[in-house]
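<purpose> Linking amino acid order to shape
<body> The protein record starts here
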Amino acid sequence: MEQYSAVILAAGKGTRMKSNQCKVLHSVTGRPMLAYVLDAVRNLQPKKICLVVGHQAQDVVRRFDSPDLNFVIQEPQLGTGHAVKQCSSLFKGFSGHVLIMCGDTPLVTSEILSAFKGFHESRSSKLTVLTTRLKNPYGYGRVEADRNEIITRIVEESDADRSQKLIQEVNTGIYLVQSRLLFELLENLKSDNAQKEYYLTDLISEAQLANVRPLAFHTDQDSVVVGVNSRNDLAKVNSLMWNRIRTQLMADGATLLDPATFYPDCGVTIGSDTIICPNVMITGLSSIGEECYIEPGCVINDSTIGNRVRIFSGSKLDNVEVDSDASIGPMAHLRPETKIGCRVRIGNFVEIKKTEVGVGSKASHLTYLGDSKIGEHVNIGCGTITCNYDGKTKHTTIIEDRCFVGSDVQFVAPVRVGSGSVIGAGSTITRDVPENSLAVARSKQKIFPLRFGQGMATKNEDR
């Protein structure tokens, strides 16, 4: 069996993206688009993978640095043919075949690449191009081929005449070429075209001069192999990838009440019998357990949610852990490094940051808990605040098990409340509270008599 290696082109800026960021680093459902291409190629187990970088090369190398990747810098960027040529030293002595692809085709799958490879092998081909048909082929090289799937010419958009622009069969930018032939042909490429670049598509004419028949492998899965060249393309690819992820999540047992309005990243997992309402976004590497219910308008990022958790409308969770049978929201905000225990109730308009909340505790409404540790079966009253920041340093508040905190309480950290204690409503706690104690820290109520007319408006004043 022939050996295979791969060259992935990721050097371009992507002018039509109108972005300062390298095109292949743009995100598709939570990952750089290049990551999907690498996954598909790695599944073929190639002997070698060469990644050609150029624009923002350091950023691409930093993001994808791996022992199985060979990075080659293309500088300046003089076209796709020039990019592949930069890899020639890495393929000295390699007699197998080279898969060439672009890093901006995130929907490509290892299945389509395997079929492409199988066609190439079955025809004993030395040069095969993966093609597809597009209703609107603008921007793609047009493929001219005969009935025997032999390519006669590929014409780039900028060089095509009016009749050639009507051709709908296009080059996907995916090639399989016998290695020795590839680098011999690259030596003959010229830049006498509208862009003054060395086109990889000119391999076709050079192959014909060398008496090699270039073959076309057509796929009807046009959405799988097309590239991202604009923001509009990026939006379409995200939509297609979301559909792919949603389909898999439903196959795994999740219920999506309105799939089109649920936006999951590719790393998201959801347990069986969990119900996701419309207008929910779950991103990063979030994991949702079984039999959960997530109401509309929730945003969950990089969080782990246990079983039978209910997250009410409008809540935001970012890098948190929520244990089973808890409930969150509505309109709750759980910030990073927060851990919510079993059967905890976090209610409406509660914000929690870098805090552990123990089993069975509850903070039902209008509360801020930051840099704190809340024990088990604690009641946090409405309007409670942990005053964790002194202007220079963050300090910790500890409230031990079975405490009852009344409404409108401020804990000025660092402070500890012993287990079984009660904090009176309206108190400002600045010192530690021993176990099983009642702490009240507020001024004594005073009542003064008023004369008629004081403290109230007269009828004339109302007017």
Remarks:
- The chain has two domains: 4-230, 232-439.
- The two ends are 97 Å apart (CA to CA).
- The mean pLDDT is 94.
